[in-house]
Amino acid sequence: MEISRYAEMTETGQHILKSINAGSAADSYDAVKDRASRDYRNEASESSILRIAPLLFVAGGIPDRKIFIGDVRVVVSDLHHAAFEVHIKTSWSEINEDHFEMMEFGLDELNDLTVHNFPLLQELPDWPPTPPVDQEGLAAYFAKAISEQSRDCISQLREIRYGLENRLAHHSSHDSGSEDHASVVSSLLQLNIILGRTADQAREAVREGLWVYISDEEAYHSYRRLQDPSIINEYPPATADLRPWMRLHDAAVRQCGELRKQADAEAGSVRALLASASSISNAWEAEAQSRFNVLLAVVSVGLGVPALVLALYGAEVLVPLNTPPRVLAFAPVAAGLLLAAFIAVLKAPKGRHRAIWRLGAGVILLALALLVAAGISAPA
């Protein structure tokens, strides 16, 4: 599905066509070769020079950011005509601060991404001040600029990771509840997927050499020998003298490699945070079990001591509470309930659960007051 195709003309008469596609399948050799056989308008009039650069773009601001991952096909027909074809393969939309969910693209969503309100198309590189001498050089220039823009966007994903790390640290030192903790874990998992997808796009761009072999097989294999001297082929390692644009091509591939390394590094940091979140969850479970044991002890004291006293004396000996000996005999019952209420207040956890424990202490004191009232008003 493709929308928003338009022409842009510079002061010197160059034309750029920009378009957005969504849900594109993985690039195949036949599909890329077929696209390179047509001009920048995608018409079968003449062949073009084609490069495919990885795409990572973060649009908007907190809390309405959108993350787009895919690639950009740079199609250069001549030194005055080119096309940028954006292929969005996956995208995420911010639901809450630092929490993203994958977007499902339909026609309505695509129509919202017109070239005039989609910042990515507006930020794609302009024509170089000094145009290269050939189409290959111009394509290499555009591919390098787009790859560098994608690499720069890693810093925005890093800021998202910092935000989630700060929330995790806050939740680990405060009893914020399991729901908040689960929300942070879910956000970290989504961020890990985003970083993994980004690294995959960059890794593919490096492996395919930005698809330079579609138009220059010798340059592709020579550059492969430069990257890995152990590769066996008949081509010598690439040098700056091999092609006039080889320096730009090398810079573009290095930008893709740096994008992959930074995405992998951020993914490693996210996985470390997930491990920390798991440790925090385990610590909370152990603490919850300890609190439950304390609560059982409080209940045992509150119920056990009065029951023991009543079993020793019998209710008819204790009530009505109208004589000093009966009041003295009732004292262990009152002491047991007061001790249970004191333990409930003393051992109350921090956070929102503190109110529940204090409410329990209040219920124990209310039960004591009712027992006293019943003992005093009981008939002789």
Describe the structure.
The chain is α+β, with helices and mostly antiparallel strands and 380 residues long. It is built from eleven helices and six strands. Helix 5 packs parallel to helix 8 (246-313) and helix 8 runs antiparallel to helix 10. The protein has two domains: 2-284, no CATH class; 314-377. Strands 1, 2, 3, 4, 5 and 6 form a six-stranded mixed sheet that branches. Helices cover 58% and strands 16% of the residues.
Shape: rod-shaped
Helix/strand-derived class? alpha+beta
Distance between the termini: 91 Å
DSSP, total strands: 6
User: What is the string of SSEs from the N terminus onward?
Assistant: EEHEEEEHHHHHHHHHH
Rg value:
35 Å
Our count of domains comes out at 2
The portion of residues forming beta strands comes to 15-25%
Low-confidence stretches: none
Average pLDDT: 80
Level of helix content? 55-70%
- Count of discrete alpha- or pi-helical segments spanning 4 or more residues: 11
> How is the main sheet built?
6 strands, mixed
What's this, in brief?
This protein is of the alpha+beta class and 380 residues long.
Keywords:
single chain; 380 residues; alpha+beta; 2 domains; 6-stranded mixed beta sheet
